[in-house]
Amino acid sequence: MNQPTHIRDEPQLYAAVRRLDHIMTRITDIFAFAGMTALIGAIAVVVADIVWRRIGGQSFIGAVDLTQFCVMAAASWAIPHAFSTGAHVTVDLFGKRIFRRFFYIIDALIPLTGAALMAFLFYLSWGRAMEQLAYGDVSQNLAIPMILFWVFLLSGLALSTLVCFVKFLKFVFTGETI
């Protein structure tokens, strides 16, 4: 007797969702590494500025622009990694053992709510970024196009949305939490 198609395909579906989760984790690892490299760059700019002030008695022109640029990359690209690895702040309540079914539902809704929130923030940020692009705004000292700052934010929000949605799928199809 043949098994129904949905029963035969379940293990493949579980494997596909787990594989997709693994791929998203690797992508966020790369983005987080690039973001932390940018943060090291920001630190180097600040240190160079301090040394230049002591030695030359002047400020390093563009230090603020470069620091903001690097910090924007670091923050925007670290957030998806936190969603992917479960490194964000959580609170374990003592009642979690007593009300397991309730918290099971909450655990399912958290990544879905995160995906919806990140998608909404992406939508709002996209509109503002397009305004910046249309106006041709640039940074104060080095004239870095402001749209480049928005690229970091938009890519981080888009990746966060995808990661949260994959975490939701993983929970639905495998029952595994972050």
From TrEMBL:
Taxonomy, superkingdom: Bacteria
Keyword Cell inner membrane: yes
Regions annotated as coiled coil: none
Domain Tripartite ATP-independent periplasmic transporters DctQ component: 43-170
InterPro entries: DctQ (IPR055348)
GO CC list: plasma membrane
Record key words, sorted: Cell inner membrane, Cell membrane, Membrane, Transmembrane, Transmembrane helix, Transport
Membrane-related topology note: Multi-pass membrane protein
Protein's UniProt keywords contain Metal-binding: no
Pfam families: DctQ (PF04290)
Location relative to the cell: Cell inner membrane; Cell membrane
Membrane-spanning ranges: 30-52, 102-126, 146-169
Subunit structure and binding partners: The complex comprises the extracytoplasmic solute receptor protein and the two transmembrane proteins.
Purpose: Part of the tripartite ATP-independent periplasmic (TRAP) transport system.
Protein name, entry field: TRAP transporter small permease protein
Organism of provenance: Thalassospira mesophila
